[in-house]
Amino acid sequence: MKVAVIDIQGKDTGRKVELSKDVFGIEPNNHAIYLDVKAHLANKRQGTHQAKERGEIVGSTRKIKKQKGTGTARAGSIKNPLFRGGGRVFGPRVRDYSQKTNKKVKRLARKSALSLKAQEKSIIVLEDIAMDAPKTSAYINILKSLGIDSKKSLLVLAEPNNNVYLSSRNLNNSEAITTSELNTYKIVNAGSIVLSESSVADLQTILNKA
């Protein structure tokens, strides 16, 4: 599958890159995408929530009223969950939400997500960007030239570029990452995927590993 390389003005450069069918043209495996995205979102959870149960509440242990003769239910502790200020019944505890996903499943999920984007014609190959200084307005102009300024976009670079990263950092609907940071969730969550020309070969090398 050959895709034209676009410059930062949104015009065809006359060059084309070959997108490997093993990465951008496979039969998408929706279950692999689901497993990888679910694990990614679970791993982002801190799991630091905790509520005090009756044994952790600070308070008197004195029996608050006599056992019989009051006409009301018996009560032995002010820490009882039925009373205001008492402990919570089966409250949340600190726990680890992380889930493990096998490397081959992760790789299949990323290939499947990229293949879906290729089918939707949502992948753009952009010539390598060289920004002299971080400037958000210049980055926005590139997105406008590509016609994706109103969509969620993901720019994938071969090497870290601090100027590009800083230029995109303040935007809610666009993100710049490297090929090593690319994951299934970011692919699925983006409306358009913009691959720098040099990142295509790098990405195909990473995802074609046995």
Describe the structure.
The protein is of the alpha/beta class and 210 residues long. It folds into two domains: 2-45 and 100-207, 3-Layer(aba) Sandwich (Ribosomal Protein L4, Chain: A), CATH 3.40.1370; 46-96, no CATH class. 33% of the residues lie in helices and 15% in strands. The chain has seven helices and six strands. It has helices at residues 21-24, 30-43, 103-119, 136-146, 162-168, 184-189, 197-207; strands spanning 2-6, 12-18, 123-126, 153-157, 174-178, 192-196. It has a six-stranded mixed beta sheet with strand order 2-1-3-6-4-5. Strand 4, helix 5 (162-168) and strand 5 form a beta-alpha-beta unit. Helix 2 (30-43) crosses helix 3 (103-119) and helix 4 (136-146) crosses helix 5. The chain is elongated and about 95 Å long. The mean pLDDT is 93.
The N- and C-terminal alpha carbons lie at a distance of 22 Å
CATH superfamily placement of the largest domain: Ribosomal protein L4/L1
Tell me the radius of gyration: 27 Å
**Could you give a short account of the major beta sheet?**
6 strands, mixed
Measured as a percent range, the helix fraction is 25-40%
The helix/strand series, from N terminus to C terminus, equals: EEHHHEHEHEHEH
Q: Give me the side-by-side strand order of the main sheet.
A: 2-1-3-6-4-5
Tally the helices: what do you get? 7
Our estimate of the beta-strand percent is 5-15%
* Count of separate structural domains: 2
Instruction: Give start-end ranges of low-pLDDT stretches.
Output: none
Q: Helix/strand/pairing class, anyone?
A: alpha/beta
CATH class of the largest domain: Alpha Beta
Overall average pLDDT: 93
Could you name the CATH topology of the largest domain?
Ribosomal Protein L4, Chain: A
CATH architecture of the largest domain: 3-Layer(aba) Sandwich
Number of strands: 6
Shape descriptor reads elongated
